[in-house]
Amino acid sequence: MNKQFYVYILASKRNGTLYIGVTSNIIQRVWQHKQQSVDGFTKKYNIKDLVYFEVHDNAENAIKREKQLKKWRRAWKIKLIEENNQEWNDLYDTICQ
User: What letter does residue 45 receive in the DSSP assignment?
Assistant: First the structure.
């Protein structure tokens, strides 16, 4: 089985502060954000809800996409989230199943 990589967006609340990250273990990484176990941006701004993610087959593509999304205007990021998760539901429980 090939390793998968994830680009994800967390939010503090609907239309709140956003964080974009990349990981090879999305369940563990989002749990770390939720537990605020790592000092940094997400802990400082209480960003815990997984509102968007996408899967990539290799780290290079995932990192490239993460950098691309980070350069996007905020309105484009919100549109991306709402096209896939109109209610801004926390998707963490969904990925844990």
Answer: T
Range of 40's domain?
Answer: 5-73+84-96
Total structural domains within the chain:
1
CATH number at residue 44: 3.40.1440
pTM above 0.85, yes or no: yes
Dist. CA 7–CA 25, nearest whole Å: 10
pLDDT in tens, 62-73: 999 999 999 999
- Which contacts qualify for 88-92: CB closer than 8 Å, 24 or more apart? 88/11, 88/13, 88/14, 88/15, 88/49, 88/51, 89/51, 90/48, 90/49, 90/50, 90/51, 91/50, 91/51, 91/52, 91/53, 92/30, 92/31, 92/34, 92/49, 92/50
